[in-house]
Write a structure and sequence with these properties.
Blueprint lengths: L1 H41 L3 E8 L3 H11 L5 E5 L5 H6 L1 H19 L14 H25 L3 E4 L2 E3 L5 E3 L2 E10 L3 E3 L14 H4 L8 E5 L3 H13 L2 E5 L11 H12 L4 E3 L4 E6 L5 E5 L2 E6 L1 E4 L3 E3 L32 E3 L10 H24 L1
Parallel strand pairs: 1-2, 1-6, 2-3, 6-16, 8-9, 8-14, 9-10
Antiparallel strand pairs: 4-5, 5-6, 7-15, 11-12, 12-13
Helix pairs in contact: 2-9, 4-5, 4-7
Length: 378
């Protein structure tokens, strides 16, 4: 009777109290999660008028040009400032070229009546001087960015779905975003043992002059590196697939250069393909080609092409289209398939040359920001 009703009332009262507490707690947690999500959406999102991904020649030229329009600019770079040209391209390569020219001049001295003997060559000395010069240029680029009041952001960049760019857990967003991440040299994927070789980047890490070198490729990188090593005293073999080097350049120049290389000191192997690389217990390489075998090779350098730095950017998040080779597709004005996102330099398929890139970067930036100014005035 009444006692049962009393017990039931107490149970119901306790249940209601408990449910109320649970509901309050759940409500509080839901509110907390909503607030947390809102806070996350607001976390460290630094907005810029212009955001540049890539601190190479094009990215830096464009960023500094943008500052002349008095807009806020951020620049993101994973490694050292200056890009391929300054760090593992034009600049250190020309230092090594000039070094090899000195060796050539020494050899010609006797023809002009000078009694000069070249007793030795210190690879580490030129490497230290070259690397110090590159570091000085890195510092100058950083100083120029600071002087132009461009914010420098160090780290790997990737896009998020809302068009922001994430770097080391922080978010950045630009009204306009430029992709200028450059490219990198590749190893062939169809030659067993290809990994025993190095790329042109690895050339600048060599701590001694190889006694015997094999360079594979017919482009300007292969041609330059083989010429440098041959002039400095390495027994150098250049392997090309056709009959001449620089086949995409002017035919007369291509034929003249091929003829000059054929005269030495580089050993030119025409219509030759690498089939297999074997590594000996002593570290030397055996390079098996379509025409024979090159044994006791100290260093094998692959100069067979480059790829754009696009894999880690998560371009699909923002709808930026790439072609079959990974290059970003742009129109004549560097626009990608995503509004407000642009690309130039080695990440695109054309004009992989620093002087052309600098001009493109400055002109593109000027056009874009002039158009922005005009819109604000209308």
């Amino acid at each position: 009777g009444s006692e049962g009703d009393t017990i039931m009332s107490r149970v119901l009262y306790g249940f209601i109290q408990h449910s109320s507490s649970v509901l309050c707690t759940t409500s509080a947690l839901s509110s907390s999660l909503i607030l947390s999500k809102r806070a996350m959406s607001r976390r460290s999102v630094h907005e810029y008028d212009y955001l540049v991904i890539g601190g190479g020649s094009g990215g830096i030229a464009s960023a500094r040009r943008a500052r002349e329009f008095n807009v806020s600019v951020g620049l993101i770079e994973t490694q050292r400032l200056g890009g391929t040209c300054v760090n593992v391209g034009c600049v250190p390569k020309k230092v090594m070229f000039n070094c090899s020219r000195h060796a050539e001049v020494f050899r010609d001295h006797s023809d002009y009546g000078f009694d000069v003997t070249l007793n030795s060559f210190d690879w580490n000395k030129i490497k230290e001087s070259r690397d110090a010069y590159v570091r000085r240029l890195n510092a100058i680029y950083r100083s120029n960015l600071d002087g132009s009041k461009v914010d420098f952001i160090q780290g790997e960049a990737s896009f998020t779905k809302d068009g922001a760019v994430e770097v080391e857990g922080k978010l950045y967003k630009g009204k306009h975003t430029l992709i200028a991440t450059g490219g990198y040299p590749i190893l062939p994927n169809d030659v067993p043992g290809a990994e025993y070789g190095i790329t042109s980047d690895g050339f600048f890490e060599l701590d001694h002059l190889p006694k015997k070198t094999v360079v594979v490729g017919a482009g300007y990188i292969a041609t330059e590196l083989s010429g440098i090593l041959g002039s400095l005293g390495s027994e150098t073999h250049l392997l090309i697939r056709q009959d001449c080097v620089l086949r995409t350049f002017d035919r007369t120049m291509s034929e003249a250069l091929t003829e000059a290389i054929d005269k030495g000191p580089v050993h030119l192997h025409k219509r030759t393909q690498v089939k297999l690389i074997e590594k000996r217990p002593d570290g030397h390489l055996k390079v098996v080609t379509s025409e024979g075998v090159l044994d006791d090779v100290d260093t094998l350098i692959w100069a067979v092409g480059r790829k754009p730095h696009t894999e880690t950017l998560k371009l699909d998040q923002v709808g930026v289209k790439v072609n079959a080779f990974g290059y970003i597709i742009v129109d004549d004005y560097q626009n990608t398939s995503a509004k407000g996102i642009y690309a130039l330099g080695d990440v695109c398929e054309k004009f992989h040359l620093t002087p052309a890139l600098n001009i493109f970067a400055i002109l593109y930036c000027s056009l874009m920001l002039h158009e922005e100014e005009a819109r604000h005035k209308r």
